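for the writeup, i need someone to sanity check this before i put it in the appendix. the sequnce is what the collaborator sent (i think, or maybe the updated version? ugh). structure was predicted straight from it, no edits. if anything looks off just tell me and ill rerun, i have time this weekend
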Amino acid sequence: MPTPIFDPITGEIVQAGGDAPPAARAMSLDDARALLVREHGVAVGTDDPLLMLVTLHQGMVADYEAMLRRHDEAIRGFLGATGEACAEAVDTVLASLKDKTVKASLDQAFALVERQALAMDQLDRQLRRHRRYHLALSLLTVAAAGAAIAIFLSILR
């Protein structure tokens, strides 16, 4: 399965298609000798010091490629660990924000209930006061009606 490729220009992850490019082939000693003959018209023997330099160069290139592979693995591991740590940090922050949001909502709801309770208590006191006024006015009305009936009966006699 091909590894996806990140395109830094578009910011998209692109699926790699086709085969992976072939690995670079190091120049062999015979290739080096043939190149010298082609380019310079000079044939060198197998024990020539120049070919020893080619061999040393090939060894150094192989060591360098091995080092790059180790670095690639280390970078992958580091990025994986960093990515996981970032994901955990984001999850922690989101959980904290969620908790704070829920707490703020509950605090607002409790404050609203408390304000409603105070308003209901005030309304209850007002209704009791109005009930007293209503009772007093009702008693005055009954007394006035009784007095009016008494006056009316005394006029009729």
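The first helix runs from residue 29 to 40. The two ends are 121 Å apart (CA to CA).
thx in advance!!
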